[in-house]
Amino acid sequence: MSINENIKVSELELISDAYSSRDPKQLELLSKSVYMNVRKAVARNLHTSSTVINQMAQREITASVVYWLLKNPACQSNRKLSQEDLNTKCVTCDLPEIKLHKSCASCTL
Hints:
Elements: H1 3-20, H2 24-30, H3 36-44, H4 50-59, H5 63-71, H6 83-86, H7 89-92, H8 97-103
Helix pairs in contact: 1-3, 3-5
């Protein structure tokens, strides 16, 4: 297995953890991941605390992560995405992050 394959396996494991975790400490840690798709999975997890969701909403720069943070019921941010971001299919894509590593390259959106 190559280094890139190891990284992908690790990222997929982190995404899986971010989706399934109910542990506030783990979700807080995962919210700071270098991987956008891990942060996006944390944003979509309804067990992520409002504190973590709102902290992420303040610091996040990736539009697709911000999109899902704003859709999380725990989010109290009044942050808005630009119309350009909202019109970008990758930003609003609702495919689970665990599938994106296979789907993005062949996306027809």
